[in-house]
Design brief:
284 residues, mainly beta, Thrombin, subunit H, six-stranded antiparallel barrel, 5 helices, 16 strands, binds arginine
Length: 284
């Protein structure tokens, strides 16, 4: 998407007054088999839209401060999960984090590869519901542009990339075992978009959350195996070259019958689009 367009589109998103808690680490997880679990290491050039959300002040320098994933959708626009920037996840309001950055073009968090770019502005989805996890996204404006090659297009409603059965790739620096093994290297896993009925059956409303087809999608393999995991949140799920999901929540990682749940990206597109019939910008 063009930068000017993105800029025009993000205006309607209001800064949320309060953000309540979704724990960054979900409780359930025990003994999952294997990005990402059930995945494989990749080079960032294979998924250059994958950026790390980082704060060394808050999370320490050992992994460059990485604590969530995020996705480049414009040269100065990045999207991530709203819960990544909740007071609970950060231990303080996000505007108190002086060194919130995205790290782009870096495969290995121990290297100096790529760019570290400061986040200039955070806009929470005003419709984000921390209890149901519905609408789990925030739009970040960067202080300097990313390379154009890093940008991935967002899939709008009706895009065939959302069709059940579609192969998709999820990428991130999250737990690779479900037991707290955080890699330095970027990993990815191949998953499949699952039918909404299946997602709803998997998450009818338990302690981990309930599935809402309007704002979420789920992906994985029925038998379990490949999945996103803790630390991947906010990162990309890409199918047919378009962004369809942001890692949002799950129950453990890679467990049979419990697919990963993602923020449905068409909701972000919709939120960024000015309402029909809105007066041209500059007028009220
Ligand atoms: N909430 C987690 C995070 O903050 C993401 C969990 C995704 N879980 C899954 N099984 N797909 O990193």
């Amino acid at each position: 998407m063009r930068r000017s367009l993105v800029r025009a589109l993000i205006r309607p998103l209001a800064m949320a007054a309060t953000v309540t808690a979704i724990p960054l680490m979900s409780a359930a997880s025990a003994g999952a088999d294997s990005v990402v679990v059930g995945g494989f290491p990749i080079d960032v050039s294979q998924a250059p839209w994958t950026v790390a959300l980082a704060s060394r002040d808050r999370f320490g320098g050992t992994r460059a401060g990485q604590f969530c994933g995020a996705v480049a959708v414009g040269r100065t626009t990045v999207v991530t999960a709203a819960h990544c920037l909740s007071d609970d996840a950060l231990g303080s309001p996000p505007n108190r984090l002086r060194d919130l950055k995205v790290i782009a073009g870096r495969t290995d968090l121990l290297s100096q590869q790529g760019d570290e770019i400061a986040v200039r502005k955070i806009r929470f989805n005003p419709a984000y519901d921390a209890t149901t996890h519905s609408g789990d996204f925030a739009v970040l404006e960067l202080a300097a542009p990313l390379p154009q090659g890093a940008v991935v297009a967002m899939a709008d409603t009706g895009d065939p990339a959302y069709a059940p059965g579609t192969q998709a790739l999820v990428s991130g620096w999250g737990d690779t075992t479900g037991a707290g093994s955080y890699p330095y290297r970027l990993h990815a896993a191949r998953v499949r978009v699952l039918p909404d009925e299946m997602c709803a059956r998997a998450f009818p409303g338990g302690p981990d959350g309930s599935y809402r087809a309007e704002t979420m999608l789920c992906a994985g393999e029925l038998a379990g195996g490949p999945d996103a995991c803790q630390g991947d949140s906010g990162g990309p799920l890409v199918a047919r070259g378009r962004l369809i999901g942001l890692v949002s929540w799950g129950s453990g990682c890679g467990r049979p019958g419990l697919p990963g749940v993602y923020t449905r990206v068409s909701e972000i597109v919709r939120a960024l689009r000015p309402a029909d019939g809105a007066p041209p910008s500059g007028r009220s």
